[in-house]
Amino acid sequence: MRIALFQPDIAGNVGTILRLGACLGVGVDLIEPMGFPFGTRAMARSGMDYADAVDMRRHPDWDTFLAQVTGRIVLATTKGAVRLDEARFEPGDILLFGSEGAGVPDDVHARADMRVRLPMVAGMRSLNVAVSAGIVAAEALRQTDGWP
Known about the structure:
The chain is built from five helices and seven strands, in the order βαβαβαβββαβα. The longest helix is centred in the last third of the chain and has 15 residues, at 129-143. Strand 2 (27-31), helix 2 (41-45) and strand 3 form a beta-alpha-beta unit. It has a seven-stranded parallel β-sheet. It is of the alpha/beta class. The radius of gyration is 14 Å and the shape is globular. The protein has helices spanning 11-24, 41-45, 62-67, 106-111, 129-143; strands at residues 2-6, 27-31, 56-59, 73-76, 82-83, 94-97, 114-117.
């Protein structure tokens, strides 16, 4: 199982997700371009020191990322068709999260093998991407007996 970030905007969120991946034994894919210079102090403050402990792969663009995909792409989206608690995960899934400012474009949304949404209180737009990644990863690992 892996977490993939599509063109992330905020270094701190990437750092937090790298830390999450390191602690849970889940690889992280970064799909560029990113909205910040990689390796900034902001990322270091949020967990970049965990980067050596996580299987991190950087991809220069979406097509390069797709060329190496072997599992299902599961997109977390506010427009998701399946509630997280109704989704069924598989061990080889790639949990994809969009950029903080723009999400993912329509072609990326359409390419997903499954789209999931986190149930929220009416009127709320979305959760922070790192919080969402933690929640989705926890449920996916629980279902697939993938906890370390």
